[in-house]
Fold this protein.
Amino acid sequence: MRNLQVSIGSLHLKNPIMPASGTFGEEMAKVLDFNQLGALVPKSITKMPRKGNATPRICETVGGMINSIGIQSKGLDYYQKVIVPFYGQFDSPLISSISADSIEEFAEVSEKLAAMKEVAALELNISCPNLKNNGLAFGMDEEITYQLVKAVRGVTDKPLITKLSPNVTSIGTIAQAADKGGSDALTVANTFIAMAIDVHSRKPKIGNGMGGISGPAIKPLIVRMIYQVHQVTGLPIIGCGGVMTGEDAIEMMLAGATAVQVGTASFIQPTAMLTILAEIEEYMEQYGIDTITDIIGKVDIS
Ligand SMILES: Cc1cc2nc3c(=O)[nH]c(=O)nc-3n(C[C@H](O)[C@H](O)[C@H](O)COP(=O)(O)O)c2cc1C
């Protein structure tokens, strides 16, 4: 038996594969055994219900897709009453992803969710706009990232994962700010701001004008960021962006990731995460690796 267990701070996972927030929902339980996943990460929740952005919200690009959903949400009450108990019935730990308009709101929602026994950990989606800073994403500013994480750290002892925005000049600096604020782990990263234009109508292909690009097109950028973050923090990293195969997941782990999230691949094949897990095991078999943690950060740069 190969050992696929990994730890994200005090959170112990049976394997390193989990869904990326916003690309996974309750309906997938019909085609996928949730108990086989390392963790469960539903769509980011906001305090109040939100309608989301204008349509179209998704368009395909070469090697990926652009989305601008705008965190459509039924609000925290519904999430606590319906979504949390649903995910609570599985063995795999629930990581609740949170979006908010202000640092205070992040702390308020985090405190309420962390108090629920079914919620094993929190993931802070700091790519959402900070309404108190001209709508600039929280995660684009080092000081705001630090203040946000510190505020949430002040309301809970549960494992805290900060999901970084890749839309920054120096990902390492933001990673260090989240570390200093008390984050237990980092997800690297959210989508890259992108735009596509229909040359016939001359309109943006996304109702909101711009959106975030995900999928295989961004994987090399994310691998580079994982590597850079791993150089400057000792925090466990969850790699996220463009993982389609077991080899993609292994690549992220060699760069320094402890676990890996899968998003766009699940739109193509809802059972992609299970295939990826099987491919990781095949790789371990091929190279005689008994324990998956042995490969973390083991890229050979010599
Ligand atoms: C349709 C869609 C909705 C998303 N919603 C969220 C979200 O609510 N919160 C979040 O943190 N990330 C969200 N993301 C970003 C993904 O979690 C992930 O960071 C990104 O898709 C890159 O991974 P991938 O290339 O494997 O898809 C969303 C992505 C897509 C495609």
Remarks:
- The pocket of flavin mononucleotide is lined by residues 20-23, 43-44, 67, 69, 71, 97, 125, 163, 190-191, 214-215, 218, 240-243, 262-264 (CB under 6 Å).
- The two ends are 32 Å apart (CA to CA).
